[in-house]
UniProtKB/TrEMBL annotation:
Keywords: Amino-acid biosynthesis, Isomerase, Methionine biosynthesis. NCBIfam families: eIF-2B_rel, PRK05720.1, salvage_mtnA. PANTHER family: METHYLTHIORIBOSE-1-PHOSPHATE ISOMERASE (PTHR43475:SF1). Pathway: Amino-acid biosynthesis; L-methionine biosynthesis via salvage pathway; L-methionine from S-methyl-5-thio-alpha-D-ribose 1-phosphate: step 1/6. One of its GO terms (molecular function) is S-methyl-5-thioribose-1-phosphate isomerase activity. The keyword Ribosomal protein does not apply. It comes from Roseomonas haemaphysalidis. InterPro entries: IF-2B-related, IF-M1Pi, IF_2B-like_C, Initiation_fac_2B_a/b/d, M1Pi_N, NagB/RpiA_transferase-like. This is Methylthioribose-1-phosphate isomerase. Catalyzes the interconversion of methylthioribose-1-phosphate (MTR-1-P) into methylthioribulose-1-phosphate (MTRu-1-P). The gene is mtnA. The record marks 164 as: Transition state stabilizer.
Length: 369
């Protein structure tokens, strides 16, 4: 997508040196657009853990480039396995991280050490290009959902509620749920987005609101707890979210608070759709609630908040009572029964094993494991 008319992706290889990796530092948004130059796999690991880069598809792509950076210095079998394991341990919930590293290992293990670094950049680049086309296609397959709602309310905006950030900065480009919104907006369909602030890291109020504002998409930031009220009063036509892992029975792991939105949507007959690329599918897992590892992040993310003073200084302040403890599960699991459907690069399907295998028949063997 673009920033002030300049086209960007959220990760790329530096064109000047041909090997270092560039990312947007998402912890600086929406206040400043800061581009970081990563030269070592440890910097990549830090960028993922600290959420300088975040978003399920993006952390997979960035980790793939992190492996390429490591192999420039040491392309031995031991280094390949060690660095892949280290990067794979940075965050546990988004399956895209494992998917990307597994794809890199499969491509690189057969390659002679002398040729591995070049092959790694090619494989990481292929992952990035795959994500761009995949996310563009997700937007196309989700568009009919918005068109159908618009047809029922001519001249009025389609009100979409979204949670967290699923935009172009959560992927290599286009986004997932936001790819649908961008394509609807660009097709001239009047849309309005209720943007969940998405405590505690505020991916909604800081990142989604920033993205939508730059693209000219009408939107309103709301407290996470306001969504149910808006649904009760007919202010939400559809809920569109992303995901970090979808199981073979259609359970959906996503940013904390998604499950509560799904419950409110179910109770108010509001369609609840989940957008995902193939790299977010985990057909080896059936029961998401019991099998998906949920990342527990630092309590300080809940006890504090970060913002900008009138002076322009960005500061972090404590909002919780002194001495109080905090708990910070970063994701939750929405059972398939609460999901209206899944939007993928291959089309839309039910949140079920049959629905997923209808779009991805080649995964049947995996589902049988
Ligand atoms: C394009 S899916 C992005 C997905 O990842 C986010 O998590 P995080 O910001 O912690 O990386 C969130 O769950 C989004 O739905």
């Amino acid at each position: 997508m673009n920033i002030d008319g300049v086209a960007y992706r959220s990760v790329w290889v530096d064109q000047d040196d041909g090997w270092s990796v560039r990312i947007l530092d998402q912890t600086r948004l929406p206040w400043t657009v800061e581009i970081l130059r990563l030269t070592h796999e440890d910097e990549v690991a830090h960028a993922i853990r600290s959420m300088q880069v975040r978003g399920a598809p993006l952390i997979g792509a960035v980790a793939a480039y992190g492996l390429a950076l490591a192999l420039r210095r040491d392309a031995s079998d031991a280094a390949l396995e060690r660095v892949a394991a280290m990067l794979g341990d940075t965050r546990p919930t988004a399956v895209n991280l494992r998917w990307a590293l597994d794809r890199m290992l499969k491509a690189l293990r057969p390659v002679a050490a002398a040729a591995r670094a070049e092959a790694a950049y090619e494989a990481a680049g292929a992952i990035a290009e795959d994500d761009v086309e995949t996310c563009r296609s997700i937007g196309q397959h989700g568009l009919p959902l918005i068109q159908a709602i618009a047809a029922r309310k001519p001249g009025k905006p389609v009100n979409i509620l979204t949670h967290c950030n699923t935009g172009w900065i959560a992927t290599v480009d286009y986004g997932t749920a936001l790819s649908v919104i961008y394509q609807a907006h660009d097709a001239g369909i009047p849309v309005h987005v209720w943007v969940d602030e998405t405590r505690p890291r505020n991916q909604g109020s800081a990142l989604t609101a920033w993205e939508l504002g730059r693209h000219g998409v009408p939107h309103t930031v709301i407290a996470d707890n306001a969504g149910g009220h808006l649904m009760q009063h007919g202010e939400v036509d559809i809920v569109l979210v992303g995901t970090d892992r979808v199981t073979r029975q259609g359970d959906v792991a996503n940013k904390i608070g998604t499950y509560l939105k799904a419950l409110a949507a179910w109770d108010n007959d509001v369609p609840f759709w989940v957008a995902l690329p193939h790299s977010t599918l985990d057909m080896r897992v059936r029961d998401g609630l019991r099998e998906i590892p949920i990342e527990e992040r630092a309590a300080d993310e809940v006890l504090n908040t970060t913002g900008r003073l009138p002076s322009g200084e960005v500061v972090t302040v404590r909002t919780a009572a002194p001495g109080s403890a905090g708990a910070n599960p970063a994701f939750d699991v929405t059972p398939a029964r609460l999901v209206s459907g899944l939007i993928t690069e291959r089309g839309r399907c039910d949140a079920s094993e049959a629905g997923l295998l209808g779009l991805y028949p080649e995964f049947a063997a995996l589902a049988a494991e």
